[in-house]
Amino acid sequence: xxxxxxxAQNQPPATQQPMPPTAQFPQVPAGQYPPPAGQFPAQPGxxxxxxxxxxxxxxxxxxxxxxxxVPTLIGVGAMVALCCGMGAVGAMFGDSKxxxxxxxxxxxxxxxxxxxxxxxxxxAPATTAAAPAPARTTAAPAPAKPRTFGIGDKVRGGDFEFxxxxxxxxxxxxGTQFLNTKAQGTFCKVSVTVKNVTKNAHTFHADGTLxxxxxxxxxxxxxxxxxxxxxxxxxxxxxxxxxxxSVTANVYFDVPKGTKLKTITFDAGLFTLAEDAVxxx
Length: 281
Description:
Strand content: 25-35%
Largest sheet: 4 strands, antiparallel
CATH architecture of the domain at 154-280: Sandwich
Structural class: alpha+beta
Number of strands: 10
Radius of gyration: 73 Å
Order of helices and strands: HEEEEEEHEEEE
CATH class of the domain at 154-280: Mainly Beta
Distance between the termini: 169 Å
Helix content: 10-25%
Mean pLDDT: 73
Strand order of the largest sheet: 1-2-3-8
CATH topology of the domain at 154-280: Immunoglobulin-like
């Protein structure tokens, strides 16, 4: 059973006088300084140590903290507080951005819900300057076609200048009634004029200098015997022609009956670089 609280129990006995607060500490006489650090006054009933209380070892001095410790701790605490604060702000205002993401990073762009995204086609920037015109190229000139000569045209062939005056076919015999020659097929007579255009005399011989061609490409030689009978003075047979002079001769070609000649060729000769002359009939 609990005894009821009685305030009178905690009161000191009447015979015991309470100790004043100052009696708990040693009193220092007036005009006397307190004992130095590490020296303690003798308490009642306490024997001082040999040599006095001043030999008692003083308490060890407190160790001083380094001067850089406090600023360093303050800086570390500020950095931690700054990082935590930024993470908290990012967590509050960012929907899906984690707090550890740096604020300098660009915000992530959310992709649309559909998987097929249409990328706009990039158009090339319009150019205001007109495109340079292509350089004009000069085509190589086409090779000149050889000139086609006909009856009456003067054609250079070697040392001579030739001209066909006329052409006639279907002749069976050349010469007189007593002196003549007959064709194997039929004779074609070609009247030509030959002029020496060099500075020296040259010999003209129709046989071996002039040839005839038909439409099929067959080539015919001049008939020398018919040439003797067909010219009044043997023109065309080893004619010595001086510079500037000319000779007109009849040249005969023995061809099959019904053949028509197409061209006459004047051979420039083996000892000249000139081209052969061709006349179309």
